[in-house]
Amino acid sequence: MAYPAGLKYTKDHEWIELSGENGKVGITDYAQQQLGDVVYVELPEVGAKLKQGQSFGTIESVKAVSELYAPVTGEVVEVNGALKDKPEAVNADPHASWMIVVKLTNPGEAGALLDATQYQELVK
Amino acid sequence: MEQATEAPLKKTPLNARHRASGAKMVPFGGWDMPVEYAGGLVQEHMAVRTRAGLFDVSHMGEIEIAGKDALAAVQRISSNDASKLQVGQAQYSGLLSPQGTFIDDLLVYRLAPAHFLLVVNAGNIAKDYAWIADAIKPVGDAVAVDASSRYALLAVQGPEAASVLQPLTGIELAGIKYYWFAHGEVANVRATVSRTGYTGEDGFEIFVPPQSADRVWQAILEAGRSADVVPCGLGARDTLRLEAAMRLHGNDIDETTTALEADLSWIVGWRKDDFIGAAPLREQKATGVRRKIAGFEMLDRGIARHGYDAYVGGEKAGVVTSGTQTPYLKKAIGMAYLPVERTAVGTEFDVDIRGRRTRARVVPMPFYKRQK
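^ Those are the sequences you sent over. The predicted structure of the assembly is below.
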């Protein structure tokens, strides 16, 4: 699967799609492949304050549980509740299955994230 | 679970085949093993429940005991009663410590009146062999040999297992009863075929010489093409065995848990002469166990995993030994050691899932039982 050029990526295998002062966050195709069949996604409440690099939730596959790490500092302004009942969407379409929307505190942070080419290189 | 070792990972004869087939490989018990293939664990699990799957379990160990007093030697180290075995028959058993706890669990095959084959867990081969060789010394004419490198072991599991395998062998599979075995050829390779498995499904385990393992593997997949038989990894093996409530050594049973606490009284030969671990088990049987393994399902969302604590009324009361979201039953299940008075079906308790108290309920085991 190709890594969309419109997204930014972290070394922890999250992606963020920036628009204005907000960013949609999910996990990459590489991450979902490593996890295998996803059965639970545990997400924060709207209003939660996140720090870049800190855990904002967990994702669980049949095999294992993994932390989700915030790609940027900010406040959760939206949570994708649909993933509660359809966690397997993360496997089927990882780059469209967003988990949270974060309102960035420090938009400068996003500049240091990986672009698609760099991320592709990381997981090669 | 398994000890991390510094030695390089061991490879089964099918290692290159797994890698070429796109399997995801992981270290397990000192071995480089496939955890799942490209289709994924859930698809593999469902294949075994509805059709058939093929597993490489060549990492398992084989220890042979032979000699005039071989039966007495096996009786000493194995908890079950091997005198009940006829030639051609196998039984599940425990390799117990003097405290009645599990050094390992194993299958005991009676190859000949005075020749037994023990199949043990991959990560325990060296430990088991050293223990057995030492423990049978006083018995007399019996010798133990670690024959693990002489065998590759394949498992065909699922309702279609017999129909897939039958065209490849002259052995009449319908004539092999559950926990019996026969010698013959599979895909023109000398083989021992045993009606056993670790999935809760009908199926066979096939012992073949390592140099022929790939040929037999390919022949079974070819024969199973129309039935859509798929290769399966250790991931599906674990979820399948858990649905069937089969214990996993290192998770559900180990050197801290006795055969009675593990609710495996049926693999203890109560009527046979003395064996290692008998005395504490007899005492525990008389006085009763304080804790016991129980099957549970989650009432709240979440998966209770190995090592998570169980709570009753706010007090830590036990520990989860296995847990997963099962692909076939589609719910979160597991096994836990609980105070014996909390193990009745329907009893509720909490599991600490990463800091969150999550409700669970004791249910009967096995979680899944196949239609006969």
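The longest helix of chain B spans residues 125-135. Residues 221 and 229 of chain B are 6 Å apart (CA to CA).

Shout if you want it in another format.
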